[in-house]
């Protein structure tokens, strides 16, 4: 795939906008990577919804709050490019993924991919997923670090559901490669130096390209009931289908987007239920009422689990920020912003604004039953918004509910008294200590 080119904006052209340049050369990159929850708070307090800055070796503007989210994410004129926005960070590892596409290319690819996320496809995915969930949970000890365990479980589920691969060495090697590619996505040093995150990520990317390319002829000739087979055979209304290169690019990106975000959501929700035993008991009662094996339609009965899932995504959105690049000059907050300017949006900050959320740091799933999230249409965007809304959001909720349904019926979830989860937000929200939990049998 040939990327669109863009010109790095001159800092002088943003000088009329209030803000700060940060450290020499690095600018605000260290804060962007290591303090992503605090940086937008500080910027908003000092400068309001718009400020200039310098991240990943280029000038940027920070557009902060629901109005900024709406201005950028609802544009349908091509003013804000997702491909050009994400390219400096992700294109060396995830070229051609839906998140890095614009315009007609994005619309065409999304139409073809929709077949893999329709109701009948999700119901088939659940039938593959459920026995793997049961098998995994049965093997868990009563004390462990939750994050690495659920990460391995979701990778194994993705190998089976997405690619029809049995658990074993082949799936293990693929899973390690995905982990290295994701870790490399936030590397500050992006040079092909052996031993660096960037080098390991590029090496694993090449492995995955070769791995999936070899599967395509077989799946086109004898498709299975997995997502990869659907990518190989899906067509849009005029009979168009993906090329080999497009299938490989979508497979790698979809695997990353699906398993890492679900792992993050399951981890933070598990922590929150351990800290709030009243909600844990409430979700357990709901799971028991549904019965031991929840089918696709039965998952809709887990309404309280849905509320808790949404609240976990509010408090700890798996992807805490989004990027675009302006293709033309535009105005926001009384300032003109030139063409070619990278734009950073901060959904994590929007999810915690006191102007829109009552006691925003409190775990309160019922705020979604009260429609508190509707005070502004863009205050709550854990799956993005507009044309780039996550195509797999229903799959993610199905997987989270399936794991919770089984886990809560069989185990208690506890953490040590006084424990507070230390977490990092980039590249995906996760606990720094792996989240040590106790899971005694019921």
Give me the secondary-structure topology.
Layout: H1 29-34, H2 39-47, E1 50-55, E2 58-63, H3 66-73, E3 80-81, H4 82-90, H5 103-113, H6 119-138, E4 143-145, H7 146-163, H8 169-184, H9 197-221, H10 227-233, H11 244-275, H12 277-290, H13 303-315, E5 322-326, E6 330-332, E7 335-337, E8 342-345, H14 347-350, H15 393-410, E9 423-424, E10 430-431, E11 436-438
SS class = alpha+beta
Tell me the CATH architecture.
Orthogonal Bundle
Number of strands: 11
* Count of DSSP-assigned helices: 15
Question: Beta-strand level of the residues, as a percent range?
Answer: 5-15%
**Topology as H/E string?**
HHEEHEHHHEHHHHHHHEEEEHHEEE
Largest sheet: 5 strands, mixed
Q: Which radius of gyration do the C-alpha atoms yield?
A: 22 Å
Which stretches are poorly predicted, pLDDT < 50 over at least 5 residues? Answer: none
Distance between the termini: 52 Å
Dominant shape: globular
Report on this structure:
It is globular and about 60 Å long. The chain has helices at 29-34, 39-47, 66-73, 82-90, 103-113, 119-138, 146-163, 169-184, 197-221, 227-233, 244-275, 277-290, 303-315, 347-350, 393-410; strands at 50-55, 58-63, 80-81, 143-145, 322-326, 330-332, 335-337, 342-345, 423-424, 430-431, 436-438. Helices cover 48% and strands 9% of the residues. The strands form 4 sheets. A 5-stranded mixed beta sheet has the order 1-2-8-5-3, sandwiched between helices. Strands 4-11 form a two-stranded antiparallel sheet. Helix 8 crosses helix 9 (197-221) and helix 12 crosses helix 15 (393-410). With 442 residues, the protein is α+β, with helices and mostly antiparallel strands. It has one domain (11-438): Cytochrome p450 (Orthogonal Bundle). The protein has 15 helices and 11 strands.
């Amino acid at each position: 795939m040939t990327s669109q080119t863009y010109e790095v904006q001159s800092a002088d052209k943003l000088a009329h906008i209030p803000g700060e340049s940060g450290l020499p050369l690095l600018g605000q990159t260290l804060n962007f990577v290591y303090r992503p929850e605090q940086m937008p708070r500080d910027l908003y307090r000092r400068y309001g919804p718009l400020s200039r800055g310098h991240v990943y070796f280029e000038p940027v503007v920070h557009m902060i709050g629901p109005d900024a989210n709406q201005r950028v994410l609802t544009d349908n004129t091509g003013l804000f490019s997702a491909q050009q926005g994400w390219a400096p960070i992700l294109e060396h590892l995830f070229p051609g993924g839906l998140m890095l596409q614009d315009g007609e290319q994005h619309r065409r690819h999304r139409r073809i991919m929709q077949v893999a996320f329709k109701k009948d496809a999700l119901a088939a995915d659940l039938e593959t997923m459920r026995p793997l969930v049961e098998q995994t949970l049965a093997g868990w000890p009563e004390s462990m670090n939750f994050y690495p365990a659920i990460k391995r479980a979701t990778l194994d589920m993705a190998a089976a559901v997405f690619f029809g691969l049995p658990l074993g060495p082949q799936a293990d090697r693929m899973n390690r490669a995905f982990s290295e590619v994701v870790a490399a996505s936030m590397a500050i040093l992006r040079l092909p130096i052996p031993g660096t995150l960037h080098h390991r990520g590029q090496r694993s990317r090449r492995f995955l390209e070769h791995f999936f390319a070899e599967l395509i002829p077989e799946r086109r000739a004898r498709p299975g009931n997995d997502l990869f087979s659907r990518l190989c055979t899906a067509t849009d209304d005029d009979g168009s289908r993906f090329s080999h290169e497009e299938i490989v690019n979508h497979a790698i990106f979809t695997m990353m987007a699906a398993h890492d975000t679900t792992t993050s959501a399951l981890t933070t929700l598990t922590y929150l239920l351990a800290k709030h035993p009243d909600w844990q008991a409430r979700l357990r009662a709901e799971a028991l009422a549904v019965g031991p094996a929840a089918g696709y339609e039965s998952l809709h009965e887990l309404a309280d689990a849905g509320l808790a899932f949404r609240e976990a995504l509010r408090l700890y959105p798996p992807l805490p920020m989004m990027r675009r690049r302006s293709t033309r000059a535009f105005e926001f907050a009384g300032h003109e912003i030139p063409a070619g300017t990278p734009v950073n949006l901060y959904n994590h900050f929007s999810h915690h604004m006191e102007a829109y959320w009552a006691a925003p740091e409190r775990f309160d799933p019922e705020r979604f039953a009260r429609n508190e999230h509707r005070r502004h249409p863009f205050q709550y965007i854990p799956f993005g918004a507009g044309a780039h809304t996550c195509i797999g959001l229903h799959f993610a909720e199905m997987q989270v509910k399936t794991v919770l349904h089984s886990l809560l019926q069989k185990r208690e979830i506890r953490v040590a008294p006084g424990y507070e989860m230390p977490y990092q937000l980039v590249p995906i929200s996760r606990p720094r200590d792996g989240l040590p939990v106790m899971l005694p049998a019921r």
